[in-house]
Amino acid sequence: MEKQSNTGSLEAHAPLDVLILAAGLGTRMRSQKAKVLHELGGRPLIAHVCRTATALDPRRIYVVVGHQAEAVAEAVRAELGADGASFIEQTEQRGTGDAVMAAREALAEAGSTLLILSGDVPLVRAETLASLVHQHRTHRGRGAASTMLAVRLEDPTGYGRIIRDAEGRFERIVEQKDATPEERTVTEINAGIYCFDTETLFPALARVRPSNAQGEYYLTDVPALLRADGADVGVYLHTDAREVSGINTRVELAEFERLLRQRTLRRLMLDSGVTFIDPQRTYVSSDAQIGRDCVIYPDVLIEGQSVIGDGCVIRSGTRITDSRIGNGVTVKDHCVIVESEIADNCTLGPFAHLRMNSKLEEGAAVGNFVEMKKSRLGSRSKSMHLTYLGDATIGEETNIGAGTVTCNYDGKAKHPTVIEDHVRIGSDTMLVAPVHVGHGAVTAAGAVVTEDVPPETLVAGVPAKVKKHLKAEES
Ligand code: UD1
Ligand code: CA
């Protein structure tokens, strides 16, 4: 990306501030939830815009909030950190002009180039915005008072149209609802992304009147007012229409989801070398990483910040969320892996469920209907059938028999189970926590273990008692 700083130009530019408009409800979403909180690629729309804004390295990011202000602010903080943005409250949503006016106190004296973004235009690229800022600052060698991002759309319905005079110079923006049938045939539209200079923006904004079909204060009236004052108004015509389109309905949200997913899968296929058996039926978050020569079957979901190493096979019906998976791991069908970590050469599933910081160490295996919660399974250890391991720490080369349950909850509190190396837990063993099973111990089938098991012993029965001492080499 082109760096838009003072360096390299003789004339120092005003600093860059970003203002994101995110106070509207988004009536056309037909939702209780503010539009900018709807998710695209597993992240709220506003988070996408915030991340793009920071890539420009602005002096400060301001976000205008109104509908569900606290939830929107929380989503912004989740993306940018507690102090990553300043919030401006627009108490009543009286239009985009009014939203910017709410920032007057914070910005009228800022002396900055102000980049205004919409919270509902999530896929615009930082490079595009940097070019817009550059054109704004260098327009005719002295900079423009206002520059808007425009694009041509085959179907411009719903957007503000850019009206030009006979010489092709910008004249004004007319909103869909205020446009004449002739104006509606104009296909050049306002993307809702602009640069202004704060000194000229706010005086012009104060002159905007809500005399239009919607009775709103339109930010889109400002460029025409500036032009009438004799100031320069620029239009930056971008070629990628989809990149700068906004989301107004759930139909558009679904189209963007498809677009974002295509972008992500293409990148993973072309740059990382991942095979997707059916890309149309695979969902991968744009933040996930997948290594070389992985094979991903249809109907797999890889969500959040998941990282998958090289040469893994992930079979159908599996969901992996915010987890780390090493190299050479096989995940058979229908597994759920959430916030967990899997080392190299492990095997999971079918139908395994790992959650809450569970860990498989190298070469470990979990099989059919095994659930692990906050548990660790050591190297080359196995738990293959019908088992619950909660709050358990299991050593190396240990086998957990079918139907084993760590009874970790006594009705009041959760307790840990520790199973050391080279242990054999017999089928249907109940481990009543807190409990410790020593190195090389064996539990007989059906044992109910209520007391610690000494190393190299065999326990059996209900409650389980030591029946035999084992030689270390037998275990
Ligand atoms: C706006 C533009 C239109 C442009 C389109 C591009 C105006 C009047 N029209 O229309 O020319 O083609 O974007 O996507 O600006 N918002 C507030 N407070 C308000 C109203 C809106 O913060 O009082 C925020 C919304 O949350 C949203 C953004 O401003 O993030 C745009 O508002 P929206 O109502 O979607 O504008 P459009 O009708 O799409
Ligand atoms: Ca919009």
In short:
With 475 residues, this protein is α/β, with parallel strands linked by helices. The chain has a 17-stranded mixed sheet that branches. It has a nine-stranded parallel sheet with strand order 14-17-20-23-26-28-30-33-36, with no helix packed on it. The chain has a seven-stranded mixed sheet with strand order 5-4-1-6-10-7-11.
Task: Please characterize this protein's 3D structure.
The chain has a 17-stranded mixed β-sheet that branches. The protein has a nine-stranded parallel β-sheet with strand order 14-17-20-23-26-28-30-33-36, with no helix packed on it. A seven-stranded mixed β-sheet has the order 5-4-1-6-10-7-11. Helix 1 packs across helix 2 (69-80). With 475 residues, it is an alpha/beta fold. Residues 1-10 have low confidence and may be disordered. It folds into three domains: 2-237, Spore Coat Polysaccharide Biosynthesis Protein SpsA, Chain A; 272-355, UDP N-Acetylglucosamine Acyltransferase, domain 1; 375-475, UDP N-Acetylglucosamine Acyltransferase, domain 1 (3 Solenoid), CATH 2.160.10.
